[in-house]
């Protein structure tokens, strides 16, 4: 409030344009006139005193009166204005500032200063404190004439200093205790959170007791420092390699700050969708590039080169960021690896050959099991290289296999230690150590909802025309085409390949010289920015894809031969051009071309 910000109640007409809305906001908040980097509206999507803010996506023509009315529920929901690139000045303003011109005024009886009524209560309290400090000193000087002026000045200065410290008391955001501004820094270092720059071991107990997976996600989400950003500019080509490199080379900010992604050469502004897409691609790529799949999940791939570069520590940080900022969970890790990530201990007694993920050692175990005794001698060098020091014989096969299992697993411990260090970001490592059973579904394969055609169909929310109209019938047909298209993707994603010339296909869809098959998960990520089912229960319940239908593209673009579906990932919306879809064949061609050639964020 003292900075000229705070809550305002504004009245706007439904037919107001974006420029008129901007003028109204600037009149209510004059500091917006100095914001040159653009702004967006947000609204609260949760409760219980810890509300998550979600962006209110602007329409094609920007924010309008009708759009704001819809987003605010007719004025019942509070909206927030947030600059995209600038930071607002939070310094207190003078009482005659332009921001307070419309506020009622009153006069302070102590100092005769004219103040806005909303600020007068705070001013009166401060003004009385100043008066209460000065009056006893004056009385002491009048009644005790033997007191030397020097001592009086010292006493007065000391008293003022003590009162100043009391006035500047700060409440610790972690434990809730009150400390002076001089002591809060020292306390914060022990309590788990710094005021200047939050560390990677932020205490997450402020989120409440950890009793479910939702509590874990909310705890690490609250630990993200949303006041600053951890900005990365990445290319869609070689996203995993480049993303890891950019993450490690970013020295101006810390990954504990909110992640903000910019795709090289694209116009998209990250309001959440770009961040989710980046984290989804990174987690998928990390699993394929730095992990090896075994019978019970995946274990880190043994690579001393990557270990020496600190790649696995960065992998742990990305896993933490993915859980904290809306990405997928890395639920592909072997149970014994997860046990080490939680407690830093190994339990080798329970290891079996199913816990080995390295293809070379799996093959060596199979050859030992199948070999007759004379053939075992041919495997002696490989077995001795695994630390076996016994006799090579048919009766020692179990011991030989045991040595291979131990060698294949124990050599991964230093790599797991690096991942464990990375997981300390946002205090996730501490939560895993205290609640390993609760955190297990986030890391170990189990029963989770898969993204298939049935799941996407279940979250479609179509905005239809009037019941019984010809437009409504066309819209229902297109929606059915979409459902059939998803089923076709699930059965054979390669059916899309002949529809697009190979030279025109986006680099993202290439794997060497071949195009990888598509699946419903890819379509979900294209439309929403994420290729996974939301982790939080309330987000999972409210997660929908809005399907819209454009009947008037000719009025907007004039005469033309083809239109493609338009996706707004920040609003989970896809709009189909009705005039250009007469049958399922046309629908498949238009949508597949739009997906393959429309991976970039080219419109804002």
Write the layout of secondary structure elements.
Layout: H1 18-28, E1 39-44, E2 53-56, H2 65-71, E3 79-83, E4 105-107, E5 114-116, H3 117-143, H4 149-167, E6 169-171, E7 178-180, H5 184-191, H6 213-222, E8 225-234, H7 239-249, E9 257-263, H8 273-290, E10 291-294, E11 297-300, H9 304-308, H10 311-324, H11 335-343, H12 359-370, H13 373-376, H14 380-384, H15 397-410, H16 413-422, H17 428-434, H18 436-439, H19 453-458, E12 460-462, H20 470-491, E13 510-511, E14 514-515, H21 520-528, H22 537-542, E15 545-550, H23 553-557, E16 566-568, E17 573-577, H24 584-597
Parallel strand pairs: 8-9, 12-15, 15-17
Antiparallel strand pairs: 1-2, 1-3, 4-5, 6-7, 10-11, 13-14, 16-17
Summarize the biggest pleated sheet.
4 strands, mixed
Whole-number radius of gyration?
31 Å
In the sheet with the most strands, the strands line up as 12-15-17-16
The structure class reads alpha+beta
How many individual helices? 24
Q: Give the overall silhouette.
A: flat
Spans where pLDDT lies below 50 across 5 or more residues: 133-167, 192-206, 497-515
So what's the oligomer here?
single chain
Mean pLDDT: 78
How big a fraction of the residues is strand? Answer: 5-15%
**Percentage of residues assigned to helices:** 40-55%
| Termini Cα gap | 32 Å
DSSP strand count: 17
């Amino acid at each position: 409030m003292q900075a000229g910000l705070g809550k305002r109640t504004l009245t706007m007409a439904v037919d107001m344009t974006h420029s008129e809305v901007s003028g109204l906001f600037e009149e209510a908040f004059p500091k917006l006139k100095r914001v040159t980097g653009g702004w967006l509206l947000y609204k609260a999507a949760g409760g219980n005193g810890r509300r998550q803010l979600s962006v209110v996506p602007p329409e094609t023509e920007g924010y309008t009166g009708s759009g704001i009315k819809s987003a605010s529920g007719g004025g019942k929901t509070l909206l927030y204005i947030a600059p995209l690139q600038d930071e607002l000045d939070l310094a207190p303003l003078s009482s005659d500032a332009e921001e307070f011109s419309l506020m009622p005024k009153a006069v302070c009886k102590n100092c005769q200063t004219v103040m806005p009524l909303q600020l007068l209560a705070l001013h009166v309290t401060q003004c009385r404190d100043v008066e209460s400090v000065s009056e006893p000193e004056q009385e002491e000087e009048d009644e005790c004439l033997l007191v030397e002026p020097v001592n009086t000045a010292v006493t007065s200065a000391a008293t003022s200093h003590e009162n100043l410290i009391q006035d500047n008391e700060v409440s610790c955001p972690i434990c809730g205790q009150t400390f002076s501004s001089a002591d809060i820094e020292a306390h914060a270092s022990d309590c788990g959170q710094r005021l200047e720059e939050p560390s990677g071991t932020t205490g997450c107990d402020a989120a409440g007791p950890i009793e479910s997976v939702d509590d874990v996600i909310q705890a690490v989400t609250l630990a993200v420092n949303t006041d600053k950003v951890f900005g990365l500019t990445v290319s869609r080509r070689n996203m995993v390699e480049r993303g890891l490199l950019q993450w490690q080379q970013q020295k101006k900010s810390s990954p504990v700050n909110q992640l903000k992604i910019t795709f090289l050469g694209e116009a998209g502004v990250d309001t959440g969708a770009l961040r989710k897409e980046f984290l989804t691609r990174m987690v998928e790529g990390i699993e394929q590039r730095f992990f090896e799949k075994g019978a019970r999940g995946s274990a880190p791939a043994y690579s001393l080169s990557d270990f020496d570069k600190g790649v696995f520590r960065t992998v742990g940080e990305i896993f933490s960021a993915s859980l904290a900022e809306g990405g997928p969970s890395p639920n592909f890790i072997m149970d014994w690896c997860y046990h080490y990530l939680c407690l830093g201990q190994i339990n080798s007694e329970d290891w079996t050959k199913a816990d080995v993920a390295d293809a070379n050692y799996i093959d060596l175990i199979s050859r030992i099991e199948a070999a007759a005794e004379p053939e075992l001698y041919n495997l002696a060098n490989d077995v001795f290289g695994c630390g076996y020091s016994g006799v090579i014989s048919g009766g020692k096969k179990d011991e030989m296999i045991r040595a291979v299992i131990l060698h294949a697993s124990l050599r991964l411990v230093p790599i797991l230690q690096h991942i464990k260090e990375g997981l300390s970001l946002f205090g996730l490592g501490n939560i895993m150590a205290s609640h390993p059973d609760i955190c297990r579904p986030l890391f170990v394969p189990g029963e989770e909802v898969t993204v298939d055609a049935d799941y996407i169909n279940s979250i479609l929310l179509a905005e239809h025309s009037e019941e019984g109209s010809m437009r409504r019938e066309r819209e229902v047909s297109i929606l059915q085409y979409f459902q059939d298209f998803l089923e076709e993707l699930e059965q054979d994603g390669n059916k899309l390949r002949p529809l697009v010339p190979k030279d025109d296909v986006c680099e993202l869809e290439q794997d060497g010289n071949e195009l990888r098959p598509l699946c419903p998960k890819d379509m979900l990520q294209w439309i929403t920015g994420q290729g996974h089912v939301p982790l939080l229960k309330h987000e999972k319940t409210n997660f929908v894809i809005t399907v819209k239908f454009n009947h008037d593209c000719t009025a907007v673009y004039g005469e033309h031969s083809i239109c493609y579906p338009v996706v707004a990932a920040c609003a989970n919306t896809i709009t189909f051009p009705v005039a250009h879809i007469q049958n399922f064949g046309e629908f498949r061609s238009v949508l597949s071309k739009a997906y393959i050639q429309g991976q970039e964020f080219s419109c804002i």
